[in-house]
Request: fold
Amino acid sequence: MQTARPLVEVVRLGLVSYQEGLRLQQVYTDRHRFGPAHTLLLCQHSPVYTTGIRHKPYPGPVLDRLRLLGADVHHANRGGLITFHGPGQLVCYPVLNLGSFKKSVRWYVGQLEKTVIALCSRFGVEAATSPHTGVWVGDNKICAIGIHCGRYVTSHGLALNCSTDLSWFHHIVPCGIEGKGVTSLSRELQRHVSVEEAVPHLLDAFREQFGCRLAEAETPEPDRNGGASSA
Reply:
């Protein structure tokens, strides 16, 4: 008897602050306490630099300089070092219980990479993995991947540059990797590729790589009290 494919709900958040994105990830993570509640949170963020888990904190003056550019700065409990999120970047936060898929973080990250590579292929862009994290087009990163997994429930995820203003990356060493660049679907194709254009391809590739079913879900109400709301 064939096991039913897991059902994953797709929640489209639109443009939200990074803080609101963190809050909503926690909301959907908490739902897994009562059984599988697989969710894909899709969004764009207002300009923000985020730092991941590392041994030493970034110097205060460095973070202050980034804030002066007009971006927020947040520390996150994902893997990886510093990166940028902003409009024109498709951010996907899968909140999955890997018990319904495969209890392997290595497998999970590999499936995310394959999802992005398949998406890029649909646009005619040849992307690949490398010894570094993320997905690359040559020596330029097109998608950052940084995840958190607690009790096999995932959070954080991937950020694919569609039409992102890449000049934001000039002020950092993206993900702490020297000598590498960044790119986007728009740059590779020499035309504007919006997040909205990329989303259906992401969903199709995710469905194929994870062997799941997808269903649209309602967008939650933004937090009116925490100062971070959807825009």
